[in-house]
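During the reporting period, our protein records have gained a structure token line. A sample record is set out beneath this paragraph:
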Amino acid sequence: MILINLLPHREAARKRRREQFFSVLAASVLMGALVAGAIYLWLGAQISDQRQTNDYLQSEITKLESEIKEISTLQAEIAGLKARQQAVENLQGDRNLPVHLLNELVSQLPDGVYLSSMKQDDRVVTLQGTAQSNERVSELLRNLGTVSPWLTKPELVEITAGSVALTPRDQRRVANFTMRIGLRRPTDADKPAPAPATPAAVPATKG
């Protein structure tokens, strides 16, 4: 027996396909919304965590900056205290420098050399005197530059020829000189002295 379907089957098939399409579309939209919502929530949580981390790091940076300022202040105070301590030590040491200077000049002054004046400017002493000859001046330079632990860097400034009247008829030729020397503090004297430079030769006397 042959059955003939007289219903509009094509229209019914199209309707079923359309319903399936909308169902799939709705499910896709819902799934996309769920995924987008999950991603949004995850990103929000990540941003919140990052903000908390940034806030924590900023607070720690502020603490470190405050501590660094305190350390800088302490370092400045320590440097100031060390400078004052060094100044006090230098003053205490400088009180004895004239004694050391005179002792050294007495012990290192060769025979035939006489000092007429002595002037100190900080740690530089200018000496003026008279010597029997240029050789005596050279000997004094060598002594002050290589033997003395308290005197350093002797420098001949000037030497001129002169004469001294021992008696009305006895005139002796002498060398009038000016030289500079440096003073070493006790703290400097405790340090190894640098290799002494060879004293410069005494220039020819001026007439």
Observations:
- Confidence is low (pLDDT under 50) at residues 192-202.
